[in-house]
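Researcher: Structure prediction, please.
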Amino acid sequence: MRRALRRTFGIAGGVRIAPEPPRLRVVENAHYLPFDHDGAWGVFDAERRIVEESVDYLGPERQLQHQVTAWPQGLSGPVEDAPEAHYLYLGQLNPHYGHFIVNTLARFWPMLEDGRDRPTLLCHGYFGGHDLLAGRPFVTEILGRLGLRLADLTVFDRPVRIRRLTVVAPALVEMACAHPVMAALGEAVGRASLDGVPVDAEARPVYLSKARLTDYVQRIENEGELADLLSREGIDVVHPETLTFDEQVRLLARRRTIIAGLGSALHTALFAPPGRSMIVLSPHPDINATYLLIDALKGNRSRYYHPQGLVSVQGEHRQLTSFADPRRIAEELLFRLAHPEASEAWDGLDARATWHTSPSIPALPSRLRRRRVFGPGAG
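Model: Predicted structure follows.
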């Protein structure tokens, strides 16, 4: 048969597993500037320099994301002191599902420790603030697994000076690197969802469809045709946005094979049991390294394929991409599932000699640090 899919081993970004814990940095007399999309915001030291550990960089080149890190000209500095003497900074509260996991949650690893000596938690908000987040059930559910409520997260709407600020560096940097504690964080959040769930109990593959998704970063416009064709051939088609957080985690746990397009629903694997088997369709020949980082953390057996003959058209607000022939893609997916030996042979033909697997992850230490995270002398 004429192939519609090519196994892709290209990587956009870096895949590095750093064995040491992420950093905690203590800043005296820090300055907090409130969120300002594409403007100057964040936490700065006493000399008004951005605190590097507080920034959500993208990729090995450390690209900025909707943030200016230079102190704004003409701003004399905060004159108001924050009410508490010590805060723990946990980054920006991003309301998008995927970014909440890889950006926001990635800083919450200190919550795995006893919180009796924990300082007041401090974050940066987003458009809509806590009201918007309260309307995103996954936010309140994930925070609840860590013993937190939205009300526990302080956000200032004005510049303030903070006498002592402990800044938590992320356990995962998008498209760059991750620390093993990110896997431990995912396990802690997912534990309650997996209670009593038989892992790999369902042999029937499931396809995670984005066809009904209205709030998305990227999507194949005629992906619904592929989903319908797979459904007619006995593949279960599920739209993740219609499921609760618990249901999504359990679904990934029960199924032996998950088929999906590249997207945030795959980040749910962080909370699922290790070793998930996933077939992923990517609109790009180079895979966003964030997905590979989660695969490495979880030991997933993911295979990424680039559909041939994708058609792109510039829409009003975003680039629209379509499958040239959804039927051919469906037929090949079904063939690969029925004949794994042929699929592996094709993958071997597509493999690049320079590609290598992600480094192994060292065992997580019994404690996050040799000393307590908080309390006298922490940081």
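Model: Residues 189 and 229 are 35 Å apart (CA to CA).
Researcher: Thanks, that helps.
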